């Protein structure tokens, strides 16, 4: 039997300390109940009436007592050891258990002066909770000290670990709900301890709160044996401490002893690593806190069990407006905390309890790490122009791996910023051609190292590249790394970015609230996401790896916080990346392939093109070749690296087949340029849109993703019927690149046919050309099926025209 540390037998709290810390906790619980139920009579100075109670009762009581219980024990150790600590609440809707202590420590009133530390301020504090026009029942961005909301469960542990990376003095106490612990993202995030270097990183103290129930069911971890639970967390690499019970006095003593031992263990590990250079992976401590759900609340309501049961999860009892018994029971419940002993006649916490609170920025609600813009320093960025790809003397003839250029750029960023930039991706850094970063750093790895790892595995105790096959954990790390003031990039295969769709949603909503409703939150670095290994080059992996739909999700979010970039070549990618690494308060999604592609623009041309976000490529157009400008017969547009190449190849065919045909070539880097200016800050005015695309000429738009997304974005533009979009249509398997393009009709030959069908002046005179295109499609497919590759003329195609109008 493995021996597990349990609560030490010592009783570290004196009788006075025990009395005061329990009184402080009673004050927290009183505030939690008040937030859920009351809109008036905050101190119960008169008998409770139905008029004092909110009509809609919203909130979650069940997890709140354990959250505030843990919070105040953190406060004790912050004061005793001058700790730099923040608090994360994993249980969903657990805000009452955090808002209470944040209010009592004074931070809330400092940020929101109308929620003052008196009776009137408390009344406003109660009324605002889960009330129209005010705050929600999660630990939302409006909550001081929060960098984790818990709207969607599963991310608290990864968020906690992301915050301590490169923060050597920071400790994050992370309370994990046992319902939350059933999620996949949470299960994988326990392994984050294999990536923490105690010499340079801070520490996470996870506290798994086993209160036994979810909304209406028991939780798995609360219904397995103590032995299984112990083995589980030892297997994850932790030393678990168990604090279990119901009696508040005994639980305070146990929690005080265990938390102090955990903090001293953390400090010892860090001291040995920083002084003695011990860099082996330690067994970090964690706590299993087993408490009743709805602790200290009503034991029964209407003859049915509530405390220590799922019925306490949300609002233990309702119907206050027409149920006098419930109203009476609510009053008795609130008076059981003895508010008259906790607050003075003005409604202010009494001095002996206020003395338990840390002061200044030691308070977890005002710790600057939880408002990371206060700590953020801009990156020292190298000149990306110095890293530009030489495109030679002619556009579209030189090839290069686009994302390799980004890897070179990040190599120089890490060189200049060795302590505040991280690259995160799921085992794909080299696969996505970013491996040049290994020239200045390696992959952090605190688990076992083998001799053969010396040969190309790129592992190091001190690396800045983080790889793990959990997109949730990676993005969670990066989100709080940014929210605590640092910088980075998350990259993944395009098709599997959907794994973190909802996580993207949560972060976008967080940024939106911060940007538009929480002015005291300072700007943080943008979340930069690179999607590579794209749909059009997944011909070898097949159908399962072909899905460009992540960008559709991005377009659904607030235009204030999302940006989408499709750089067509390496120099454009460098320009876009430089912009993204400088930006704040956005989610920047960059779509760029890792394979070799034609390079189209010099670095100066790329900067100009990306600055505009959309533009005419004169060198690929022939509608401006005469002595006077001429309107084009057709607009060939592209967005994305592979669609751009096929659109250019189609344009070249059209120039050869119909030399007199006027073709304008438009490339889109910033997808939101297509949106009307009133709907997105990057959107073009109607006048500018028509200037680029003409008011009435046919547009053949070759798009990287699903074609209907373009129609969604341009729905307010004039003459919709002239906009014909090609894109991915769920047609693919193990194909050659051209075969995959043909199946989805984004290839050069189908694009030429589209032009023939839509330009009236071509008419039946183009019949022979159309037949040649159809024959070429048949020929290319047959060649691919016989030889397993595309024809050399396709693979080696380059832009054939040197001059603008040749």
Automatic annotation (TrEMBL):
Residues 594-799 form the Xylulose 5-phosphate/Fructose 6-phosphate phosphoketolase C-terminal domain. InterPro entries: Phosphoketolase, THDP-binding, Transketo_C/PFOR_II, Xul5P/Fru6P_PKetolase, Xul5P/Fru6P_PKetolase_C, Xul5P/Fru6P_PKetolase_CS, Xul5P/Fru6P_PKetolase_N, Xul5P/Fru6P_PKetolase_ThDP_BS. GO terms for molecular function: aldehyde-lyase activity. Residues 14-374 form the Xylulose 5-phosphate/Fructose 6-phosphate phosphoketolase N-terminal domain. SUPFAM superfamilies: Thiamin diphosphate-binding fold (THDP-binding). One of its GO terms (biological process) is carbohydrate metabolic process. Its cofactor is thiamine diphosphate. Coiled coil: none annotated. Transmembrane segments: none annotated. CDD domains: TPP_PK. Its EC number is 4.1.2.-. Keywords: Lyase, Thiamine pyrophosphate. Belongs to the XFP family. PANTHER family: PHOSPHOKETOLASE-RELATED. This is Probable phosphoketolase.
């Amino acid at each position: 039997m493995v021996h597990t540390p349990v609560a030490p037998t010592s009783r570290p709290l004196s009788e006075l300390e025990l009395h005061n810390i329990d009184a402080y906790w009673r004050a927290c619980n009183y505030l939690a109940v008040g937030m859920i139920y009351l809109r008036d009579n905050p101190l119960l100075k008169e008998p409770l009436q139905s008029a004092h109670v909110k009509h809609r009762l919203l909130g979650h009581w069940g997890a709140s007592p354990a959250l505030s219980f843990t919070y105040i024990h953190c406060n004790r150790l912050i004061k005793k050891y001058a700790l730099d600590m923040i608090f994360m609440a994993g249980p969903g809707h657990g805000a009452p258990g955090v808002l209470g202590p944040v209010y009592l420590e004074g931070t809330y009133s400092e940020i929101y002066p109308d929620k003052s530390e008196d009776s009137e301020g408390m009344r406003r504090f109660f009324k605002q909770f889960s009330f129209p026009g005010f705050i929600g029942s999660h630990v939302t961005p409006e909550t001081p000290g929060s960098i984790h909301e818990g709207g969607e469960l599963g991310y608290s542990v990864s968020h906690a670990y992301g915050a301590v990376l490169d923060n050597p003095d920071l400790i994050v106490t992370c309370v994990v709900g046992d319902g939350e612990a059933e999620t996949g993202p949470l299960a994988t995030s326990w392994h984050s301890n294999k990536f923490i270097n105690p010499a340079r990183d801070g520490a996470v103290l996870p506290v798994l709160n086993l209160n036994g129930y979810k909304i209406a069911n028991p939780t798995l971890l609360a219904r397995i044996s103590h032995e299984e639970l112990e083995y589980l967390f030892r297997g994850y690499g932790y030393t678990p401490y168990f604090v279990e019970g119901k009696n508040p006095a005994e639980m305070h003593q146990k929690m005080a002893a265990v938390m102090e031992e955990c903090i001293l263990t953390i400090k010892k590990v860090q001291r040995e690593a920083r002084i003695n250079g011990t860099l082996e992976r330690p067994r970090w401590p964690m706590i299993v806190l087993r408490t009743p759900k709805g602790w200290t609340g009503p034991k029964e309501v209407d003859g049915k069990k509530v405390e220590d049961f799922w019925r306490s999860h949300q609002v233990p009892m309702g119907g206050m407006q027409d149920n006098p018994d419930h109203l009476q029971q609510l009053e008795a419940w609130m008076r059981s905390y003895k508010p008259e002993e906790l607050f003075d006649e003005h409604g202010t916490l009494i001095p002996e309890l206020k003395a338990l609170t840390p002061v200044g920025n030691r308070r977890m609600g005002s710790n600057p790490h939880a408002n990371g813009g206060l700590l953020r320093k801009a990156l020292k960025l190298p000149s990306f122009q110095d890293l530009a790809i030489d495109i030679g003397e002619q556009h579209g003839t030189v090839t290069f791996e686009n994302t390799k250029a980004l890897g070179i750029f990040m190599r120089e960023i890490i060189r200049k910023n060795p302590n505040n930039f991280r690259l995160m991706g799921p085992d794909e850094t080299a696969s996505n051609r970013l491996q040049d970063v290994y020239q200045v750093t390696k992959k952090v790895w605190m688990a076992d190292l083998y001799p053969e790892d010396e040969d190309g595995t790129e592992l190091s105790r001190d690396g800045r590249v983080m790889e793990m096959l959990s997109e949730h954990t990676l993005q969670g790390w990066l989100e709080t790394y940014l929210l605590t003031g640092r910088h980075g990039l998350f990259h993944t295969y395009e098709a599997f970015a959907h794994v973190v769709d909802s996580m993207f949603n949560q972060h976008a909503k967080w940024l939106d609230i911060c940007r538009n409703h929480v002015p005291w939150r300072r700007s943080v670095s943008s979340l930069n996401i690179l999607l590579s290994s794209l749909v059009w080059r997944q011909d070898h992996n097949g159908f399962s790896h072909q899905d460009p739909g992540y960008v559709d999700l991005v377009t659904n979010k607030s235009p204030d916080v999302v940006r989408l970039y499709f750089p067509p070549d390496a120099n454009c990618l460098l320009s876009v990346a430089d912009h993204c690494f400088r930006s704040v308060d956005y989610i920047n999604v960059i779509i760029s392939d890792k394979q070799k592609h034609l390079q189209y623009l010099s670095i100066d041309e790329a900067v100009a093109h990306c600055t505009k976000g959309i533009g005419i490529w004169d060198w690929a157009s022939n509608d401006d070749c005469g002595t006077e400008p001429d309107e084009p017969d057709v607009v060939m547009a592209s967005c994305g690296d592979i669609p751009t190449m096929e659109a250019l190849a189609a344009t070249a065919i059209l120039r050869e087949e119909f030399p007199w045909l006027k073709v304008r070539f438009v490339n889109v880097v910033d997808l939101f340029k297509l949106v009307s200016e009133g709907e997105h800050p990057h959107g073009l005015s109607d006048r500018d849109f028509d200037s680029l695309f003409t008011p009435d000429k046919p547009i053949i738009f070759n798009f990287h993703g699903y074609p209907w997304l373009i129609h969604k974005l341009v729905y307010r533009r004039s003459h919709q019927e002239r906009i014909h979009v090609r894109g991915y249509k769920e047609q693919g398997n193990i194909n050659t690149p051209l075969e995959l393009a043909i199946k989805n009709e984004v290839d050069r030959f189908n694009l030429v046919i589209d032009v023939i069908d839509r330009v009236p002046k071509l008419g039946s005179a183009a019949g022979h050309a159309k037949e040649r295109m159809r024959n070429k499609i048949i020929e290319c497919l047959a060649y691919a099926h016989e030889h397993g590759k595309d024809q050399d003329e396709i693979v080696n195609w380059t832009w054939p025209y040197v001059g603008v109008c040749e």
